[in-house]
Design a protein that fits this description.
200 residues, alpha+beta, SH3 type barrels, 2 domains, 6-stranded antiparallel sheet, 6 helices, 6 strands, Rof/RNase_P-like, RNase_P/MRP_Rpp29-subunit, tRNA processing, Ribonuclease P protein subunit p29
Length: 200
């Protein structure tokens, strides 16, 4: 068994080791109250930040030609099933396109709908060579539509200064490209306002 002096020395050494931030006078003050609370200092582990997987940059996408449609795939008949899927998508979106449907309601739905697979026709244009182009929209970008025509030609038609017509189940809608220069993802969240006059 230890004597009182040895026990006291052991306690002082133990407290000094357990509470390194406290001075000897503070430790003696704690001992005089006969209540000792040992502090536990734990090393905080640095949180590892999860690295988000980075996608391709715009330059890499261009180099890899991710958005290019190969010539052997540029066939109108190949995309007719896509058009049928698009028609069913619009019917579901507009609750059936019934004859008594409100035109403004249908128009509002079409403004935010995905147009990939829709058959459109250029009805007005500042460039006469674009007028009359009809085909299925294969790709929609911010400023252009890529359209495949019935004679298997891929046309790149700018939205600016062009008016497109879109027909489904007898309902004809007109798209003013100058006011439609948005990506499909941006357009779905945009609030469109009614405007009295729209110029090319």
């Amino acid at each position: 068994p230890q004597g009182p002096e040895e026990a006291k020395a052991f306690i002082n050494a133990f407290l000094k080791h357990s509470m390194p931030k406290m001075k000897d006078e503070a430790i003696q003050d704690v001992l005089s109250r006969k209540a000792v609370v040992l502090e536990h200092y734990s090393k905080k582990k640095a949180k590892q930040k999860r690295k988000k997987p980075k996608g391709f940059t715009a330059k890499q996408r261009r180099e890899l030609r991710l958005f290019e449609i190969k010539p052997e795939q540029q066939r109108y008949t190949l995309f007719l099933p896509l058009h049928e899927l698009w028609k069913q998508y619009i019917r579901d979106l507009c609750h059936g396109l019934k004859p008594d449907a409100q035109p403004y309601m249908v128009q509002g739905k079409l403004l935010k709908a995905d147009l990939h697979g829709a058959i459109v026709t250029v009805t007005k244009s500042r460039c006469p060579s674009y007028v009359g182009i009809t085909g299925i929209i294969l790709q929609e970008f911010k400023h252009v539509f890529k359209i495949i025509t019935k004679d298997d030609k891929l046309k790149v038609v700018p939205k600016l200064h062009n008016v497109f017509s879109l027909e489904i189940d007898g309902f004809i809608s007109y798209i003013y490209g100058s006011k439609f220069q948005l990506r499909a993802s941006e357009r779905s969240a945009k609030k469109f306002k009614l405007k009295g006059t729209i110029d090319l």
